[in-house]
Amino acid sequence: MSTRLLLVEDDNGIAVPLIRTLERDGYAVERAATGADAVERVRRDDLEPPAIVLLDLGLPDMDGLDVCQRMRESGYAGGVMIVTARGGELDRVLGLDVGADDYLIKPFLLSELLARVRALLRRTHAAAAVEESAGASAESAPAPFRIDRDRRQVWVGADEVPLNTKEFDLLAGLQDGEGGVVKREQLMAEVWDENWFGSTKVLDVTMARLRQKLEAHHAPVHVVTLRGVGFRLEQGRADA
């Protein structure tokens, strides 16, 4: 069966040749022309979610960054590649922070797009294999949990938990709280910027990914949310 991709692009002049190229490379491509349609497609229980979403930012009904965030909040765990003409540093940083895995700036070579799709598929397949292996080998006794701040690595026993920069910084900030509540404002200032002017929803999205990764590797700690206040790191597995 062909790997399913979802292209979120409202411009026919861009979407049609992209779909043609991807289908020639063996992919099954669906298209959504609006952000709302894209979010609905990854949320539906009666449809297998796409392996990768190729997401434009300049959509007619909502910003693509909001689309990415809503997809992640809905539980979509596949790959997200932003494909856009917006190449500014802030857009790239925000895109990765709200859950995108890759960011490709228009105009681009079709060969580069195909190479990035293949690379993203390899990464998502590897991550899924790690989670499956972690679940199959989980034991009743918790594995040792270690945060190596020098190397910026997190370990559960012999398995490394793959965290991105923001996820690691959030975990370190929670550990510094020594079991107490760390306020949202403090985490935003420490992990993002004390003068951050955007939505703090990026904190919730990143924290949700951190929580999922800790649970997937059966870490002997878990994140507790105090709605509207902050978060704390507690001992014990979330599913215990």
Automatic annotation (TrEMBL):
The keyword Phosphoprotein applies. GO terms for cellular component: cytosol; protein-DNA complex. The keyword Cell membrane does not apply. Residues 4-121 form the Response regulatory domain. Residues 135-235 bind DNA. One of its GO terms (biological process) is regulation of DNA-templated transcription. CDD domains: trans_reg_C. The modification 4-aspartylphosphate is found at D56. Keywords: DNA-binding, Phosphoprotein, Two-component regulatory system. Coiled coil: none annotated. Residues 135-235 form the OmpR/PhoB-type domain. GO terms for molecular function: phosphorelay response regulator activity; transcription cis-regulatory region binding. This is Response regulator transcription factor. It comes from Nocardioides piscis.
